[in-house]
Amino acid sequence: MSQGTAADRQLFVSGDIRSIPFGELRPMCSNVFEWLVAGVLFKLFRMPAPLQFATESRRLLSVNAEQVPKRLMNYFDGLRPQAEPLGYQINHYATIPAVGPIAIALMTMSEPAGQSCFYAVRVALKVNDSITDDGHFGFNSCLADDELLSTITYAKLPKPRPGMDRKIIKTTDVNALHKEHRNRMMGKRITPVHPSQWFAIAEKHNRLETDDLLQRRVTRLATPGEVARIRSQTG
């Protein structure tokens, strides 16, 4: 099981700076003037709802099936029989550590030739007394220089990082998605991946994507005060 670095264990939240409590913004400003200007903006645009969760977005934990929350495993159980006839077998399950009422899990399935993998991501978030689920699945193939060819179901995702050739298909048919991905692989120089290496590949691309979102300010580091409040709200 990968434990990750200290940087991987940092907690991230939505990148909207307006959600940072005014008093906690001071260390992030280079001078008092910036802080005062921020105060004026907060009075005009302050988000009313507090943050509900924070995630260790750069960190994937390899887990066994029993460690995946049952609600998320049910989703994977429904997809696995659709991918197995295509030659894909379970490679690993993983979770992303989080603080707050949220659970995130990943499943990958590989095929012997290493040309592609099938993966699924599922998220469960508790809001008040109800739980909402969301996620997507698709196929990935590795190209040269950390580039990735990805064909996935419809999902509300930020624009892909440079080096990710992603196509979103409005279908929930695994066979149709697989056919589209195979067509897209034609003419590409695919880098074969041994089944034992897919978790390391997933870790690497997860870090690259998180760092790209951080650079584009889609996400940001959580402040200590935010983490403390989230912990207190969820017990």
Helix proportion of residues, in percent?
Answer: 25-40%
Output the structural class: alpha+beta
Q: Give the C-alpha Rg.
A: 20 Å
Number of domains: 2
- Provide the residue-averaged pLDDT: 82
| Strand/helix succession | EHHEEHEEEEEEEHHEH
Topology, element by element:
Layout: E1 12-14, H1 22-25, H2 32-45, E2 54-55, E3 61-63, H3 70-83, E4 89-95, E5 98-99, E6 102-110, E7 117-127, E8 130-142, E9 148-153, E10 164-169, H4 174-185, H5 198-215, E11 219-221, H6 224-234
Parallel strand pairs: 9-10
Antiparallel strand pairs: 1-11, 2-5, 3-4, 4-6, 6-7, 7-8, 8-9
Characterization of the model:
With 235 residues, this protein is of the alpha+beta class. It is 31% helix and 28% strand. The chain has a seven-stranded mixed sheet with strand order 3-4-6-7-8-9-10, with helices on one face. Strands 1-11 form a two-stranded antiparallel sheet. The chain has a two-stranded antiparallel sheet with strand order 2-5.
